[in-house]
Structure to design on (184 residues):
């Protein structure tokens, strides 16, 4: 039977989606990124590897703050998946994430799912160490990510430590007076 190519676009190959492959991100190689731009009504999915070899660079960029506190309009899920199938509970690294107005800190050392309800402040996400490769897999339950920084939950020193505010710029909150009144 002749094989057609009608549905080729439904198999997203890392080597074709990323011209720079296998150049790693600041953590490790990308696996894929898809959202509503790729497929109609597709939520945003972003998996990438975290590997020991890039940890030095990762720690330098994170500079003790990592991904700073922020909120989304949609629910967010972060899967942290260890790569040892015989010890699947072992993450192979240590991550940290804080939640709420009080920035309650959690240290994550095991394969975990982090569920972040829409509107809940979260951040200072950092990879503190990586002994074995693991997978970071982020899902946003909307076709396009929205995000708003919560600088009011940070000290001036922490604000200045963020390596690139351009990477953490507000998206999708431009006309939201509700959030303005809540934050400022
Ligand atoms: Zn988030």
């Amino acid at each position: 039977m002749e094989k057609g190519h009608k549905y080729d676009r439904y198999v997203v190959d890392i080597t074709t989606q990323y011209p720079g492959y296998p150049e790693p991100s600041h953590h490790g190689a990308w696996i894929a990124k898809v959202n509503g731009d790729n497929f109609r009504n597709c939520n945003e999915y972003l998996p990438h590897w975290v590997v020991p070899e890039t940890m030095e660079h990762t720690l330098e960029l994170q500079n003790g703050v990592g991904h700073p506190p922020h909120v989304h309009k949609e629910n967010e899920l972060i899967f942290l998946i260890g790569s040892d199938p015989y010890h699947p509970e072992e993450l192979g690294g240590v991550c940290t994430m804080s939640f709420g107005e009080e920035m309650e800190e959690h240290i994550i050392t095991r394969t975990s799912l982090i569920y972040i309800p829409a509107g809940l402040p979260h951040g200072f996400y950092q990879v503190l160490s990586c002994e074995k490769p693991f997978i970071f897999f982020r899902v946003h339950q909307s076709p396009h990510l929205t995000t708003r920084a919560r600088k009011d939950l940070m000290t001036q020193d922490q604000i200045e430590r963020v390596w690139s505010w351009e990477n953490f710029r507000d998206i999708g909150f431009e006309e939201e007076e509700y959030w303005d009144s809540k934050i400022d």
Remarks:
- Residues 92 and 175 are 42 Å apart (CA to CA).
